[in-house]
Amino acid sequence: NFFWKNKILNLEYGYNYRVRCRAINIHDNVKVYGEWSNFSGEIETSPAVVTDVKCEVQSDNSVRISWTGSPTAKVYQIEYTTNKLYFDSSSEVSSTSVENTYVYITGLEQGEEWYFRVRAGNNSGYSEWSDIIYKVIGTKPEPPTTWSLTTSAIIGDKIVLQKAGDIIPAV
């Protein structure tokens, strides 16, 4: 926020700003303006929230997380866990930081749902966290090659085999 004319201006996250000012005196209901000051150096705001976070499975135990970056970000922090309720409340959250807009995360346990979120950082602080995304890690199971149901038959009994979805007539 920036204070100007007894108002607070809301600056947008993710941008750099430069400011200058001048004095205004009122004498006999006439405004007398002073000279403009020089522009300040750049004032950096915290980065904007990262968007478009995507997760692609790379192998049985790894993913590639990518996102649209924030223009003023210098670093991105990624958190991941197997339960989204753990974010902000548990030590069961892993974290890594990178300077680009993607990261490969390896060593993930197969068969688990993994939740991910990303935030951008610079010298002025961190953005809010992105939306949480998730992915199930591991390979799809192979379809069964045989199907069996334990049953007994005696020589001479009639056995009826059916495809899945066939309607069994009432006997």
Task: Write a structural description.
With 171 residues, the protein is an all-beta fold. The chain contains no helices and 14 strands. The protein has strands spanning 2-4, 7-9, 16-17, 24-27, 30-33, 43-44, 51-59, 62-68, 75-81, 94-98, 102-105, 113-122, 125-126, 133-136. The strands form five sheets. Strands 9, 10, 12, 13 and 14 form a five-stranded antiparallel sheet that branches. Strand 7 and strand 8 (62-68) form a beta hairpin. The termini are far apart.
Give me the number of helical elements: 0
What is the alpha-carbon Rg in Å? 31 Å
Query: Can you give the mean pLDDT?
Result: 81
Range of helix content:
under 10%
Q: What share of the residues does DSSP label as strand, in percent?
A: 35-45%
Q: Major sheet, described briefly?
A: 5 strands, antiparallel
Structural class: mainly beta
Low-confidence stretches: none
Shape: rod-shaped
End-to-end gap: 80 Å
Topology pattern, helix = H, strand = E:
EEEEEEEEEEEEEE
The number of strands is 14
Key phrases:
single chain; 171 residues; mainly beta; five-stranded antiparallel sheet; three-stranded antiparallel sheet; 39% strand; rod-shaped
Produce a short descriptive summary.
It contains no helices and 14 strands.
Write the layout of secondary structure elements.
Layout: E1 2-4, E2 7-9, E3 16-17, E4 24-27, E5 30-33, E6 43-44, E7 51-59, E8 62-68, E9 75-81, E10 94-98, E11 102-105, E12 113-122, E13 125-126, E14 133-136
Antiparallel strand pairs: 1-2, 3-6, 4-5, 7-8, 8-11, 9-10, 9-12, 12-13, 12-14
